[in-house]
Write a structure and sequence with these properties.
transmembrane helix, Tetrahydropterin Synthase, Chain A, 10 strands, transmembrane, 3 domains, 45% helix, Band_7/SPFH_dom_sf, membrane, Band_7, three-stranded antiparallel sheet, four-stranded antiparallel sheet, alpha+beta
Length: 298
């Protein structure tokens, strides 16, 4: 017995623009109907039933009026069927039997809370971000997602957690020199976060305008250890530069003495001079002059 074939996935509902009528014109028509009904009753130009019909018609136009602010839209449905989205600001009018949901199209800020996650190396880090987003497709935001604001918040947190696992917090010997890190590659990390968020928000009809990290630090339990590691790396790098510079200065000094024929030094005396100069140049403390009254051989 064969299993029933699975139903094909339903296509996402995309936004359709709706052309509403000018609300001011409909207000004028409604007022004229009320005035006509009043005149008929007052002057008895026609049967009262006609006046009643005109009054009912004027009253029926009023529920179809609504106001839209700039960067605001109204999603309209008729007996449960989506008919379109009106993005025209001002006083508008539509079929009174249609119901609608207003939705803001303005840019919004989402400032995520600081989260503790593991980076690419597995080190715990604290990370937070600010996301600027807005609704692009109103139909998807209303009908495809139960609560698009909560959806954005949850998916943003998931994207940030995923982002942290793709990059190391800082460079090190285990990483290639050109590899992007969370601390040094802020622009590249921001671009990657924005692209990931746009993929996650596509089903909700939401687009990301900007996304930036607002907080980045090692977790407290390893912060002191990592600080000492960074200090050690900085000390080693500084020592390397100091030694390289000292070697160049010693070489220049020996070459200068040899070119001017000031001293004739054998290998042993050159070694002693090099040793003394390196100690002086590489020492962290001020050197103390010592008067040498002897020689290397006595």
């Amino acid at each position: 017995m064969t299993a029933p074939a699975a139903a094909p996935p339903r296509a996402a509902l995309d936004e359709t623009r709706y052309r509403s009528r000018d609300g001011y014109v409909m207000v004028a028509i409604s007022v004229l109907l009320f005035v006509a009904a009043g005149l008929i009753v007052a002057r008895q130009w026609a049967p009262p039933a006609l006046a009643g019909l005109l009054a009912v018609a004027g009253a029926a136009l009023v529920p179809g009026l609504y106001m839209l602010q700039p960067n605001e839209a109204k999603v309209l449905t008729l007996f449960g069927r989506y008919v379109g989205t009106d993005r025209t600001d001002g006083l508008r009018w539509t079929n009174p039997f249609q119901s609608g949901t207003k939705i803001s199209l303005r840019a919004r800020n989402l400032n995520t809370s600081t989260m503790k996650v593991n980076d690419k190396r597995g080190n715990p880090v604290e990370i937070g971000a600010a996301v600027v987003w807005r609704v692009r497709d109103t139909a998807r935001a209303v009908f495809e997602i139960d609560d698009y604001t909560k959806f954005v918040s949850i998916q943003a947190e998931a994207a940030i957690r995923h982002l942290a696992t793709l990059y190391a917090y800082d460079s090190g010997e285990d990483l290639a020199p050109e590899e992007t890190t969370l601390r040094a590659g802020l622009d590249a990390v921001a671009d990657a976060l924005r692209d990931d968020l746009n993929l996650r928000f596509a089903s909700a009809g939401v687009e990301v305008l900007d996304a930036r990290l607002t907080h980045l630090a090692y977790a407290p339990e390893i912060a002191q250890v990592m600080l000492r590691r960074q200090q050690a790396t900085a000390i080693v790098s500084a020592r390397h530069q100091i030694v390289a510079g000292a070697v160049g200065m010693v070489e220049a000094a020996l070459n200068g003495l040899s070119e001017r024929n000031l001293l004739t030094l054998d290998d042993e005396r050159k070694a002693a001079m090099v040793s003394n100069l390196l100690v002086v140049l590489c020492s962290d403390n001020d050197t103390q002059p010592v008067i040498n009254t002897g020689t290397l051989y006595t």
